Amino acid sequence: MTDIEIRDDRAAGRLEAVAAGEVVGRAEYFFLDAPERALVPVHTIVEPAHEGQGIAGSLTRELYDLARREGAPVAPLCPYVVKWAERHPDEAPAADPELLRAAKEWLVAHPGLF
Fold it and tell me: How far apart are CA 107 and CA 17, in angstroms?
């Protein structure tokens, strides 16, 4: 795999995977405030020319690391992150169903953001 740098663009709500100065993948997220603060991954996208290089997994691992650093659980809505979490239960604690429900409601209430 090419050397990848993961950057957090908090203002835009995304992690970016950068290789040779080019954004080759991103994980879009938001922070839910209620019923408790939680990191909610919504989309994970890797440019077609860079698929199969572990970039999506690196972005997802960094999402969970970010959540740990912030003391927030993860409530994944992104299908890739959900599957990754199932394969890595030691790194990705199961999401609270109440947080998942609240995250889905927040997303419905904010159309067009993702």
Answer: 24
For the segment 47-73, what is each residue's pLDDT rounded down to a tens digit? 999 999 999 999 999 999 999 999 999
b/e 59-92 (16+ beta carbons within 10 angstroms → b): bbbbbbebbeeeebbbbbbbebbeebbeeeeeeb
Cβ-Cβ contacts under 8 Å for 104 (sequence gap 6 or more): 77
Average pLDDT, the chain: 95
**What is the model's pLDDT at position 2?**
60
Q: How many CB atoms lie within 10 A of CB 31?
A: 14
Under the phi-then-psi rule, with left for phi > 0, alpha for psi from -120 to 50, and beta for the rest, what region is 102?
alpha
Nearest-10 Cα torsion for 106, 109, 110, 114: 60
pTM of the model: 0.93
Distance of CA 34 to the CA centre of its chain: 18
